[in-house]
Amino acid sequence: xxxxxxxxxxxxxxxxxxxxxxxxxxxxxxxxxxxxxxxxxxxxxxxxxxxxxxxxxxxxxxxxxxxxxxxxxxxxxxxxxxxxxxxxxxxxxxxxxxxxx
Length: 101
What we know:
mainly alpha, 83% helix, elongated
């Protein structure tokens, strides 16, 4: 799952690098919006997996504490990475918005 997130982030970076016009961004890898949606979906899936793992541990369905901790840490890392990407995008937006025309 983390590898999928890394691939999504690399796709996000390549989509961000190709943004320059509507023709270039729409044709590659489904565009920036689609990559962003997929990444958010991947993070949401990691959070659901972690929640199911915690519920399984709490209800006694599993005794794999290491697996549960790993799922929770993956979810936390993915969410924090997504927040960092969001912050960078918002900073870039603010910088562009404040440019004198």
